[in-house]
Amino acid sequence: MKKSLRATDTIARLGGDEFAILMPETGAEAAQAAVARIRDSFPNTAMSNGKPVTFSIGVMTNDCRSCHFDEMIKAADALMYKAKREGKNTVRCSVVGPET
């Protein structure tokens, strides 16, 4: 995942197989492009290690200074579970703030 992101981005493991990626000063379009790069490269890397995988992603873009981190994580988590219910290996996105 790190190879698909900028040096200013941060990846953190939330638990189990759940991760969060913080991308400062990144709008919805750029965040979706970064996630697309990860989605396209990750299965190939996993398969080269003999581990077939799928993954589901929830993307929250926040351009709202009054939004709380915990709320954003909960919203992204809900989007991720929606992606899982809709067939896995998909991405669901939402924007909070002036971009909406």
Strand content: 15-25%
Mean of residue pLDDT?
Answer: 78
Helix content class = 25-40%
- Please name the CATH topology: Alpha-Beta Plaits
Order of helices and strands: EEHEHE
What topology, given as strand order, has the largest sheet? 1-2
Keywords summarizing the entry:
100 residues; alpha+beta; Alpha-Beta Plaits; two-stranded antiparallel ribbon; two-stranded parallel ribbon; globular
How does this structure look, described?
The protein is of the alpha+beta class. The protein has a single domain (2-96), classed as 2-Layer Sandwich (Alpha-Beta Plaits), CATH 3.30.70.270. Helix content is 38%, strand content 23%. The chain contains two helices and four strands, in the order E-E-H-E-H-E. The chain is globular. The termini are far apart. 12% of the residues are buried. The model has no long low-confidence stretch (mean pLDDT 78).
Question: What's the structural blueprint in terms of helices and strands?
Answer:
Layout: E1 10-15, E2 18-22, H1 28-48, E3 57-62, H2 69-85, E4 91-96
Parallel strand pairs: 3-4
Antiparallel strand pairs: 1-2
